[in-house]
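Agenda item 2: magnesium ion complex prediction
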Amino acid sequence: MSSLRLEVASGASAGRVFDAELDIVRIGRAPQNELVLSDALISSEHARIVSSADGFVLEDLGSTNGTWLLRAGEQHVLGEGRRAIALSPGDRLLLGGPEADGIELRVEFGPDTDTLEIALVRPLSELGKNAPLAAGDDRLQSLVQALREVVSHEGLSEVARGIADASLLLVPRATHATVVLRQEPESAQSNASGKSVGFVPVVTRVRGPSGPRAPEAAVRVTRSIVRKVISERAAVLAADAPSEAFSSESLLGASIRSTIGVPLWKDEAILGVLQLDNRDAPAMFEARDVDALGVLAVSASLAIANAELIQRLSLARAELKKENQYLRGRERARSAEVRIIGKSKAMAELFLQQLDKVADTRVSVLIEGETGVGKELVASSVHYRSKRKDKLFVAQNCAAFPENLLESELFGHKRGAFTGATDEKKGLFEIADGGTLFLDELGELPLSLQAKLLRALQEGEVRPIGATQSKQVNVRIVAATNKNLETEVKAGRFREDLYYRLKVFPLRVPPLRERRDDIAPLAVFFLDRYTREMGKSILGFAQETLEILSAYDFPGNVRELENEVQRLVIQADDGAFLTPELLSPRVRQIETVLLSAGAAKGSLKDMVDQVERHILIEALREHGNNKTAAAKTLGITREGLHKKLKQLGVG
Ligand SMILES: Nc1ncnc2c1ncn2[C@@H]1O[C@H](COP(=O)(O)OP(=O)(O)OP(=O)(O)O)[C@@H](O)[C@H]1O
Ligand SMILES: [Mg+2]
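Presented output:
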């Protein structure tokens, strides 16, 4: 197996030489590519080169401007019909346009790694059999300790770290240890072609003064050794590469004196490679280091295989649990759907004129409204009134996670996509495929994810973090926000293009104070729900209680009303009516004011004056006659307060 070198011959990065260290080299404008080309002609994820048993294969990733390959005077186009082509040394790649239009990359292959000074090869079948250990040997002690380290962990990433630490313990000359694990193929299709199985480094540990620690900077792995271990199915010890030959740059660049690669395996499959380097000392690894690691590898392989199995199981269980949750939520939402209370004109309009029309289309829906007005309820109703109702309705609150976690929640990730991503995870877009994805608090979506969401909306495809291929998904987006997105757009916090894309069908759920007719029916509905839930028998609302409720402004909208009724039910005695004094002071405010102001009947002005006077006196009393503070609560200036007091003859 040779190594791959790409030389950028034109464009912004002309002159750059890139040596492939991973089995997959992604090329594009986006920063997560291994080879980043910032030229405008290049798509954010333009192409990739995958190394497989049969060599290096170039694939176009559906780039906008295309990929060409020049070989022996012939030009091959990648695009529709043909997406991949095997590379040969001397090939010239043109990305973003044919001939002089494109960015040119020159392909070179390094020599076979066999020309590395391989000092020792121990076939897998011999590993663990010739441990060079005698009783009394210091190593026996280290080995026992190392094995204990390996078996004392559970999660895959901890096991991998444990193996790296154990190997440093076992081989005192080693300065760096890296565990590389097999990446699962992305789809059945790519699996069949065998091209997408790659190996990714999941953990590196370095020797520190007080034991193994994480490296301060990224550590390059020696791909040639990893490859050799995989192709030979053997542990390999290699020394300084011959310096006159063009060999894998990672060996030379990292000035490694010697390196050992040991396979981790289960049955016929190579699960990963443990690689040890000696980067400081001139001392050379020895055969007995390989043999000691061979003993470790037997247990380490088992531990990895078990951890992978456990992870797959718990992943499956988590997915089941998630699905279950959605199913339960769906049932709840289904029954709740019939129970969207709202006979007011404003709600009837929302339902009859807007919701019914949009429900069965595929357009995105943007639900706007204050907190607690029922946005989520309306969102689920859009879903359950559509043909998608038998598929999942999946909700995600965009404010619930930091950016990177949210991205992986929504779009999923591949193994090794970031630290801690030890296994693959399905994103909600995939889970909701065929159904509806509800993005709550959309105004909180970070800008970078807004770009990804836009792409998902426009092209119907998503790309998990760390994946090289996009997946087609058919998901309807319903989003909700209690922020004014137009203001967010103006402030540069929300992408304008995304805003217009989502705004195709805006639904505004009016606040409760704009539909007071709904308050009483909602109160009765919640009373019914909570008396049943708490097993109480309450006769109902006293008429006056309903009147006070209907007059209140409910800044927290339906949710506040629901909480108020729930509280009433808890407090009320069985067999009684719900009378006004049970209401919370906040809701009763208006009644209190009227009563305690002792508003005598008279002209409107007199009554208003009395109430106003009462409010001012109350505010002053509350703040111990501090006028500045009282004015502040009342939302007027201190001067304004003075004027009022004078007018009303107070103080
Ligand atoms: N019209 C309605 N009929 C019955 N229940 C309702 C209605 N509107 C809202 N609710 C109930 O009020 C509560 C709040 O509703 P919901 O969670 O949908 O509001 P929201 O607008 O999403 O709130 P937030 O802005 O805080 O996310 C829920 O328990 C919901 O079931
Ligand atoms: Mg909500």
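Discussion summary: Residues 339-342, 369, 371-377, 482, 522, 558-559, 562 surround adenosine-5'-triphosphate (ligand 1) (CB under 6 Å).
Owner for follow-up: CH.
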